[in-house]
């Protein structure tokens, strides 16, 4: 277990792989912690130096009262990468993690060499939609919305075939600190990255899930289209979390893309 103080926030993180490995950073979705990447780790080549972390309000990181702002979340991971000496990284962000990735690429291009945007957008939902979700959680807790969230997260096939595992993901969601979940909702509600993402010029892979009820493929495609030369892929078997539902496909897409870019070194 590793904790690093970044400004006024203590962040929980895990760093694996050789010290001279290719830096690879994962930033996960709202309502999850960095265990959401566990299925990918054994499938990756051993040449990566892998950083996973819990964003503020999630997992074992501090969960201060909100609202949070996207700038907070970007500065948190930038500070963590600086503290650990991680730069020129392949940065994989999913959902809100993908928004953090876009913001970080715009503000600290020295930290990112290659961008992977999974199931995300420059703007996700509307302010009214997020305010309704916040109000519902304040009234009934995350538990009140858990079933509808899981329906958007996972395909029908996953629900039918993986009931035990689904229970574990439900527990992770519901045990997210309420103030952390709401704080991150505020950050998403108040973020529109259109202008800054349209200025990005770095190798970018965008991944969507065909059954995603939170960030549909068209949203991910439109985000990818803002970055010249980006590649867009759909995982046909997955919903909002293809790294969980289809880890083999996710890793294949990632590695095939990275092999095309000499600056990564695969």
Folded structure, characterized:
The chain has one domain: Rossmann fold (3-Layer(aba) Sandwich). 41% of the residues lie in helices and 18% in strands. Helix 1 (70-84) crosses helix 2 (96-107). An eight-stranded mixed β-sheet has the order 1-2-4-3-5-6-7-8, sandwiched between helices. The protein is α/β, with parallel strands linked by helices. A hairpin with a 2-residue loop joins strand 1 and strand 2 (9-16). The protein is built from eleven helices and eight strands. The chain has helices spanning 70-84, 96-107, 127-140, 146-153, 156-161, 163-174, 178-189, 194-197, 217-225, 242-245, 247-259; strands at residues 2-6, 9-16, 22-27, 48-53, 89-94, 112-118, 204-209, 231-235.
CATH superfamily: Alpha/Beta hydrolase fold, catalytic domain
Residue share in β-strands? 15-25%
What is the first-to-last residue Cα distance? 29 Å
Please identify the oligomeric state. single chain
CATH architecture: 3-Layer(aba) Sandwich
Strand arrangement within the widest β-sheet reads 1-2-4-3-5-6-7-8
Question: Mind telling me the CATH class?
Answer: Alpha Beta
What is the element string, with H for helices and E for strands? EEEEHEHEHHHHHHEHEHH
Count of DSSP E strands? 8
- Outline type: globular
Instruction: Give the radius of gyration.
Output: 17 Å
* Total of DSSP H or I helical runs spanning 4+ residues: 11
Low-confidence parts, pLDDT < 50 over ≥5 residues? none
| Estimated helix fraction | 40-55%
CATH fold node name: Rossmann fold
Give the total of domains.
1
């Amino acid at each position: 277990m590793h904790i690093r103080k970044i400004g006024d926030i203590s962040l929980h993180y895990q760093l694996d792989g050789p010290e001279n490995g290719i830096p690879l950073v994962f930033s996960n979705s709202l309502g999850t912690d960095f265990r959401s990447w566990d299925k990918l780790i054994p499938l990756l080549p051993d040449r990566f130096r892998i950083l996973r972390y819990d964003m503020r309000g999630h997992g074992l990181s501090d969960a201060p009262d909100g609202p949070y702002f996207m700038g907070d979340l970007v500065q948190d991971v930038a500070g963590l990468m600086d503290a650990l000496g991680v730069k020129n990284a392949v940065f994989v962000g999913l959902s809100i993690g993908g928004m953090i990735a876009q913001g970080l690429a715009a503000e600290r291009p020295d930290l990112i060499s290659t961008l992977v945007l999974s199931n995300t957008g420059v703007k996700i939902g509307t302010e009214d939609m997020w305010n309704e979700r916040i109000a519902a959680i304040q009234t009934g807790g995350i538990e009140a919305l858990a079933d509808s969230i899981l329906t958007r997260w996972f395909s029908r096939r996953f629900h039918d075939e993986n009931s035990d595992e689904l229970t574990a993901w439900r527990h992770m969601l519901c045990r997210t600190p309420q103030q952390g979940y709401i704080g991150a909702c505020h950050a998403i509600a108040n973020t529109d990255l259109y202008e800054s993402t349209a200025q990005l010029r770095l190798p970018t892979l965008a991944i969507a899930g065909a059954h995603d009820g939170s960030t549909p493929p068209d949203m991910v495609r439109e985000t990818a289209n803002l970055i010249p030369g980006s590649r867009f892929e759909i995982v046909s078997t997955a919903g909002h979390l293809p790294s969980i539902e289809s880890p083999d496909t996710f890793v294949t897409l990632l590695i095939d893309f990275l092999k095309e870019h000499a600056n990564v070194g695969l």
